[in-house]
Amino acid sequence: MCGIVGYVGVQEATTIVLDGLRRLEYRGYDSAGVATQQNGCIEIRRAEGKLLNLEKVLSERPVQGNCGIGHTRWATHGRPSETNAHPHYAGGIVVVHNGIIENFLELKEILRGKGHNFNSETDTEIIAHLVEDYYKTDKDFVGAVRKALAKVRGAYAVAILCEQEPATMVAAKQGSPLVVGQGNGEHFVASDIPAMLSHTREITFLEDGEMVVFGGGGMEVTDLAGNLIEKSPKTITWDPIMAEKGGYKHFMLKEIYEQPRAIADTLAGRLTEDEGDAYLEGLNLSDQQLQAVDNIFIVACGTSWHAALVGKFLLEKHCRIPVDVDIASEFRYRDPIVQSNTLTLLLSQSGETADTLAALREAKAKGGQVVSICNVVESSIPRESDGVICTHAGPEIGVASTKAFTTQLVALTLLTMRIGRSRNSLSAENCRDLAQELLKLPRKVEATLELNDQIEAIAREFMAAQDFLYLGRGNQYPAALEGALKLKEISYIHAEGYPAGELKHGPIALIDEQMPVVVLVPENATSEKVLSNMKEVQARAGKVIAVTDANGESFCDNVDSLLVVPKITDDLMPILTSIPLQLLAYHIAVLKGTDVDQPRNLAKSVTVE
Ligand code: F6R
Questions:
Q1: What is the Å distance from ligand 1's center to 490 Cα?
Q2: Distance, CA 302 to ligand 1 centroid (Å)?
Q3: Residue by residue, what is the 3-state secondary structure of 147-185?
Q4: pTM
């Protein structure tokens, strides 16, 4: 998730672009860059790290022009560095890009064969080279962009300038956000509305497959084939803070709704459906090394630890390797038995959690391979790991983790596929089936989000409760723990997650008519058992909020509230059942008037023991 800004008009482009990038820094801050076009010349300035560094570069070496593009980067392909910073340039063409080009390696090879040399590790640079390649022969900038975009597969929002085409900018969108702003004789393009709100409130929303050409004081929207599309701008009335949250009341809600895109980005370019395998670029472990693994530790804290618990089910089922899951603050002090054939897997959204980092160092000191799953590419944990799987959730600003959690589950599934295939414990056919289910996931998450209104009504009914219980069995138990943690964190209501079968061994004493019990009961091998546990709750007058899937709806009669998520393979069901629980916690917190995005006593990145 990066931020792009473009400007064509009468003012100094750099000022406008920098101002826009400042408002998009929430989308990434690994590096930033700008390019301007003036008098047949393109000037580029880039810097690693936050925008402040770029501003310093620009104060020493300013650039001028009334046409410019800029970018703030959240690293996906290639580590954060000046070389990998956008804009990327090739033979008079300069590009900023948000998204992931899935077939970039294939295109890179073709372009190399035609004599193109690449400077960065990014997928974006191939777009500049592709456009250059077509422009060289046709001398038609807009046509060259069209041809280039027809070749790329994946998600993109791009803004492109050409040295030989004064005051012309082309932008296009496929799967990544892009909005256009119209001012007085000037035009803006950006990943998000806040970037242009101080200049215009007249916003045109582009759809996937649309392209816009700015030039000669006007703009023209077409599809990729060049057919004209009529669009009219909407007047935006949001205040700037609301705009930063994309119109959502809180970052947490925005991030809950970003999950379909975050999951799609985490999958992009990683599924080789035909071969029935997963491609994990940074894993750095050969088939032989994976075959030699005797046992796995998954180590993490908080929400990431809940993802780790789901990971145990996936890895043990499909890879037949014993997996231990540890809380990082315990692992580091318990003298764990890590051997040369142990794989230690660290899960961390931030990559900076002190306990998880210490656990990583402990595992490394003892030997074996250390791999991390992380959402921040260049943070400490991936830097110190032998291999890394990046989740591509984009920055998570709400303190309560949502999209980082569900993308960790996706990354764990991909890792399971890779290890399972390397050891042949997972057949190519079963792996292909899992890949198919993964590809359906973003759409099913969208369908799950449609439960929002129903969940808000349930939240109203139960917001006054003092305690909640969350029950689940198997891989739904970690989802129950995660649901309870979300509620505790942001609503300050006491909540416990329990394996449903444990209920009768103690917690059942708590059940009375005051106690809401959230029961996760999708149809699976243990759903009948969970149903019995649910009946035990109802027999003691407890209030049941059941979360099931389309196949389980019929056996959940007589519950107080029922939430039905789409059916998906059992391996991925914790992703779908977690989402209503995120929304339930969110709505209860909003109704109670707590600080949802920055709950008391909590921090986003816990860098102390
Ligand atoms: C809960 C939450 C925390 C984190 C935990 C570990 O919503 O966000 O429990 O999961 O502090 O953080 P990371 O994943 O950054 O290591």
A1: 13
A2: 5
A3: HHHHHCCEEEEEEEEECCCCCCEEEEEEECCCEEEECCC
A4: 0.79
